[in-house]
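Q: I have 588 residues here and want to know how they pack in 3D. Can you give me a structure?
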Amino acid sequence: MKKLYILLLLVVVSASFGQTIYSENFGIPTGNTTVANYITGTSPATFQNSAPIIYSGTSGATSLRATSVSNGYAGVSGSGNVFLSNTTSVGHFFQIDGINTTAYSSGNLQLSFGYLTSVVASQLILEKSTDNGANWSPITFTNNTTTSWNLVTIGAGQIPSTATLSLRFTQPSTVAAPNTTQFRIDDIKVFNFNPSCTLVLGSPTGVCDALTYNIDTYTATIPFTGGGTTGYVITPSTGTVAGDNPNTIAAGNILITGITEGTYLTLDIVNGVCSYSASLTAPECKPVNTLPLSEAFNYNVGSALGSYQTWANSNSGDNISVVTGNLSYAGLTSSGNSVSMGGDGKECHTPFTPTTVAEGGLYASFLINVSDYANVTTDGNQDYFVVLTDGVSSNFKARLFIKKSGTQFQLGLTSGTSTTNYDATLFNVGDTILVVLGYDFTTLKAWLNPNLLTFTSATLPNLTDTPTAAITTLGGFLLRQGSLTTNPTITVDELRIATTIPGLLTSNQVSAIAGLKVYPNPVSNGTMFIESDANAERIITVYDILGKQVLNTTTSTNSINVSQLNAGVYIVRITEEGKTDTKKLVIR
């Protein structure tokens, strides 16, 4: 049962005190959608408000988007926003009609909205109307001084008390940099300022109660000041209210416990005088994967990769989706399904055990297939689509780039943000490519289509890059959808990550020697047996989990003495008649 405090809340963690009259955070668009189409959409891909509120905008130009999401201000929703651009012409607008403010004095009415401009010298024009748009008058506000999101708040005296308030956001008639200025709007609110409401909320935060492969819960914390008076009632959309009680405590933290991972929180607080709401985007309570990592994308076709516990979404937009079938490559066994990313949308990040110089290196292999390059029309357009991180999804340490070259493409590698370091090989749409990324904590390396039967860390890489500042930790792998004009549609399959090449090859399930058997496994009596269909002379090399060679012998017999090896996990590399296979071995 939800616990109710008698409590009053202010508008989404803002410093204003009052009752929300109109609020719109523009839902969660699934792509670039015109205003007309968004009106008829289904929740959450539609406007929050319906009749009598009416939305309109420049036909074919004003759109709702889930890119460049709002951030950095109190009460930010961080999902959909209105996009206005002067790509074709100036004067595009977004308009809201039908806001009723008659219950409040114009002296107490205020307006706020999240605002982004890509050029500081160009600022939106904001206007109001009380006669259904027949006449417009300006609303003044403090322009953005940076090209970052900002919360604009317009004080009392400019918003009229009327049953027919209209607001219009318009591109300026002149722009500082033609064809480049972009404007975005989010989190529009009209509210009544009431100085008798003294409660002030800080920014909500959410912390996972556990990080497991199951669906976990999290706890939301909402700091407050200005409490200590009675009459406040708080109701969360989910979870149980706990923590400090603003009825009796002047400052503290309201807690909402037991919220299911992935469930957003909305908090409504009223006392009969003021009514406010606060919201919190749900954290993703997902664990750190252990190495070696083997990802066959064995998930339901059509589902979002970020919905699974091994992956977490970063950014917003279209999902990276699971698709049916596998990519194939000589010497690699494929299973499960694969995933497709379409160039623009969410990023998916899978964290793994942090790897440092103590482990000696890190290697990641995966298959890619560019299935469609039609959306990238400009030759030479380039972007990165695979990233190694330090374990934090936003901390990019190494990037794999793709560049259009006529009807073909090239792959490039860098530890920076851009690169001219491209391999000369030209690949075709439809080619399946095995990429192996490696880092020995000195040099980044990339191998393209290596022969898995002979592949070792000594194999000459196609690309190398020495970071200006040494990368000290790697702990995450990220699939990135950058832009429709730079990133093609790419299928990705059979991701493997390990700290050694032998470990990587074992994860890749390389199978070359017919009838190969290594037994018993685990070994407990000091003797390992190896059999194959040929039973020819073999070179046996054993590595520990750090990649150090601990045994090397050539033999024609089936029994190998491993009594000198300590208990633990090892990789056995067997070469027979020019073919090489690897097996995992446990010694007790």
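Q: Anything worth noting?
A: The mean pLDDT is 88. Residues 501-507 form the longest helix (7 residues).
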